[in-house]
Amino acid sequence: MFHRNSASTGFWAVRWLAAAAILAATASTAWAEERSIVRIEEDWELVIGEPSPNSDAPQVTCAISPLSDMNSYSATFVVNHREVPAFAAGGLQLQTWNGENLLASRRAPNQAVLDTPGEVIRWTQVMKKTANGVEFEVLGGTSTTWGNFGIDGTMKLSVAAPIPDLNGYSPENSVEHSGVSYAGNRVQSLVLKRVRAYTDEGLLAEDANPRVVHPASE
Questions:
Q1: How many CA atoms lie within 13 A of 9 on its CB side?
Q2: For the chain, what is the largest distance between any 2 Cα atoms, rounded to a whole number of angstroms?
Q3: Comparing 94 with 28, which gets the higher pLDDT?
Q4: How far from chain centre, in Å, is Cα 79?
Q5: Is the distance from CB of 96 to CB of 71 less than 8 angstroms?
Q6: Which of 67, 93, 17 is nearest to 177 (CA)?
Q7: Rounded mean pLDDT, 152-164
Q8: Contact yes or no for 43/200 (Cβ under 8 A)
Q9: How far is Cα 178 from Cα 163, in angstroms, rounded to an integer?
Q10: Residue 102, CB half-sphere, CA atoms under 13 Å: how many?
Q11: What is the residue-averaged pLDDT of the chain?
Q12: Are 40 and 169 in contact (CB under 8 A)?
């Protein structure tokens, strides 16, 4: 799992509520009450520079968690390699974790190696509260190398976890633990473009503030 120094982001649930209040100007003062977030969607974009298929480069990892750190339940989406049960070149893999303990993994059907200069890869990472825990999924992926991926549940994993809601989620936590794990010089950019939070009633708030993961700011 790709790690950086994590920051405290416990205030994020409050920020969702403030954003929701702005987006719903006609809503009542019920926005002041805490709302249970049951679904998170992250839109990601990866722009490749000059890939090296002979060395399986570059390699990218993007993480997401229902909590404000990666010390408990989380998922990682790895691009252009598979890490478990053993390292393999190319392809896409979704993994679920409890701290440093791997819970499950699932790979995309197409396991080709990046070989197109300037390729743009887009996907949505979804986290959904379920009756028994949390479901992680990669949806709506588009690329030259792997075509359309994350279709018909091919990139979905569920975790049994005693988590009441997703209010502890933080996009800053996702950014802190995502990045280019190998051959960063072969990646033009990795950006978390947009984040959406949902309650049982529907869309609560949308954050369209792009968060640049690579190249990292000085």
A1: 23
A2: 59
A3: 94
A4: 12
A5: no
A6: 67
A7: 94
A8: no
A9: 23
A10: 13
A11: 87
A12: yes
Closest alpha carbon to 91 in 159, 141, 40, 153: 141
Tell me, letter by letter, the H, E, C secondary structure of 91-114: EEEEEEEECCEEEEEEECCCCCCC
Residues 6+ apart with CB under 8 A from 209: none
Q: Are 189 and 45 in contact (CB under 8 A)?
A: yes
Predicted confidence (pLDDT) per residue in 51-79, tens digit: 999 999 999 999 999 999 999 999 999 99
pTM: 0.86
Q: Distance between CA atoms of 195 and 122, rounded to whole angstroms?
A: 14
State the amino acid at position 167 in one-letter form. Answer: N
Q: In the block, which residue shows the tokens 């994020």?
A: 12
Tell me the two tokens of residue 120. Answer: 């743009």
Which DSSP string corresponds to the chain? ---------TTHHHHHHHHHHHHTTTS-GGGGS-----EEEEEEEEEE-S-BGGGTB-EEEEEE-SSSSSSSEEEEEEEEEE-SSS-EEEEEEEEEEETTEEEEEEE-S--PPP--TT-EEEEEEEEEE-SSEEEEEEEEEE-SSS-EES-TTTTEEEEE-----STT--HHHHHHT-EEEE-GGGEEEEEEEEEEEEETTEEEEEE---EEEESPP-
The CA R_g of the chain, rounded to the nearest whole Å, is 17
Q: Do 166 and 66 touch, CB atoms closer than 8 A?
A: yes
